[in-house]
Design goal:
Layout lengths: L2 H15 L6 H14 L3 H16 L7 H16 L2 H19 L4 H16 L3 H17 L5 H17 L3 H19 L4 H16 L3 H19 L4 H16 L3 H24 L15
Helix pairs in contact: 1-2, 1-4, 2-3, 3-4, 4-5, 5-6, 6-7, 7-8, 8-9, 9-10, 10-11, 11-12, 12-13
């Protein structure tokens, strides 16, 4: 289901769960959802702005304004207005914090949407604070879910990595790898993701030999976990080709590229004859 549709449903469910009455604000939000679903983004935006005015009448201890701003953020993303999306997502997060508390599910979900929007537009510095906050929350959670904690560490590591804060990213990647190995086993695709992260980082730090070993490990795990015809595996081999090329091993790099192309072609055939395969979170190549 597209993200915009998911959030429209989520907004409706949150409104119902919060016990908010079907007032003028509620009617305007429903009309905005209908307009968005029909493709009339301008009308949806106008209705949401009206809903925001209605919501503000309830004061900052009421979550209506935060819900509206969060939905506006998804609308601006859909329209391609990244800067406006980031602005209203930040306002939504502040609103949820004040109305429901910083550890509320709504605040943490809003925090995640702000981080994702910043990352999607490569505003890495803006993504860092919400990623740090999400990691702190995962670390303090009474349930201590190791998989969720590993993901939070990996997410913050990627943001720091993108800002070339490699010495800060490295221990986060190492910790995520250890958590994933213990919780999911050596052959999980998430373990391969962590190995790829580390491989790329070590290449940036100038250790091509270590980078190659880590990326080869990742490719071996992905082939076992995802199969020999998966686009993620093709990405692994392209990443390895980049490492080899940077080390001056052009022949080996060309062979790795050829293998990546063959895997990608097999993946396309499989997708046409079957159902499209789910893709793991994309990772930048070392040359990016």
């Amino acid at each position: 289901m597209p993200k915009k549709a998911c959030f429209a449903i989520l907004l409706s469910l949150c409104v119902a769960a919060a016990g908010l009455p079907a007032d003028e604000w509620g009617k305007q939000v429903k009309q905005a959802i209908q307009a968005q679903r029909s493709g009339d983004l301008k009308a949806s935006e106008e209705l949401l702005l009206k809903a925001l005015l209605s919501a503000q009448a309830y004061g900052d201890k009421d979550p209506r304004a935060a819900y509206t701003l969060d939905y506006l953020g998804t609308l601006y993303q859909q329209k391609g207005d990244a800067s406006e999306a980031l602005r209203v997502y930040a306002q939504a997060l502040a609103g949820f914090d004040k109305a429901l508390g910083p550890e509320s599910p709504e605040s943490l979900s809003s925090c995640g949407r702000l981080a994702e929007a910043a990352e999607a537009t490569e505003h890495w510095a803006q993504a860092e604070a919400p990623r740090r906050r999400l990691l702190a929350s995962a670390d303090q959670a009474t349930s201590h879910d190791p998989v969720a904690l590993a993901q939070a560490k990996s997410d913050l590591g990627l943001v720091l990595d993108a800002q070339q804060k490699w010495d800060e990213a490295l221990p986060l990647y190492d910790a995520a790898l250890a958590l994933r190995r213990k919780a999911l086993g050596e052959d999980a695709a998430e373990v391969a993701e962590s190995l790829n992260n580390l491989g790329r980082l070590w290449l940036m730090k100038g250790d091509a030999k270590r980078a190659e070993a880590l990326i080869r490990q990742a490719a071996a795990i992905d082939e076992k976990a995802l199969g020999p015809a998966d686009p993620v595996l093709a990405d692994d081999w392209r990443r390895l080709a980049s490492v080899l090329r940077k080390g001056g091993r052009d022949k080996a790099a060309a062979e790795a590229d050829d293998r990546a192309d063959a895997i990608a072609a097999a993946a396309d055939l499989k997708a046409q004859g079957d159902h499209p395969q789910p893709k793991a979170r994309p990772l930048p190549h070392p040359e990016d």
